[in-house]
Protein 1
Amino acid sequence: MSGFIVGLTGGIGCGKTTITELFSALGVQHVDADIVAREVVMPGTPCLQAITQYFGEGILLTSGELNRAELRQRVFSCASDKIWLEQLLHPAIRQTLLLQLKKLTSPYALLVAPLLLENKLNQHVQRVLVIDLPESLQLSRAMARDKADEQQIKAIMAAQISRSERLKLADDIITNDSSISDLVAKVSRLHQQYLQQATAIP
């Protein structure tokens, strides 16, 4: 098990996936909360059964999989549905993430989670790395990537911790507003720092 965990987070559209891939290229293993969030609602899981009972069969695609777009629409239009869903999914996601982290063997590992700070997952990490962008850039990148309208992206941004609060809780920050070569250099510097910090753990 990697004894040193770096929590990688940032708002929607900040480039968390790109940064994670750069760390992966250096041999750093990771677990991704977004992937785990999909795994815990796969057909046959207790979570999907509970969601179907609560929202009805209409929440499923014809394949039996969760209709994510429908679910997102429901929870963003009803606060009590959102709270119910979070109380169901967050403990299941947390438990699975921690189990997966235990299996990693690189000198240090990443816990990649958009809601790392909101869901208090930072209590399981040694460093918090925030990927940061000005909010206007964040909005335009997320709209282009997700083919979503401005209102929907703004609603997601509003549901996340504020940029200023996120930066306040960061141990390390990568500003992702320039070239890929600049990002490579920033990741490389942090990689060396994390390797030193990981080996300093008794």
Protein 2
Amino acid sequence: MKKLKNESALLKKAIQIGETYAKNRGYSGFSATNAAKEKIEALYRLLVNDKLIHPLPADQEDLLSMKHKLALWIAKQLPDDHPLLK
């Protein structure tokens, strides 16, 4: 798995946009006390369920891989000239 440039910033953006997406879908499970780990897993599963990202193989489903998948997802959603992609 090749690490993306600005992967941590992309992950932060993915969580932010993913939370908005989840709320628009009717999910109200996020609160200020939720750990990032819980948010990442919930967003990953929601995006897989909605077929917006391909699922990881069951034996590779760990937090690091989920973070990477979310960063890849948001990188594809952002415009080419976005500062996080440079």
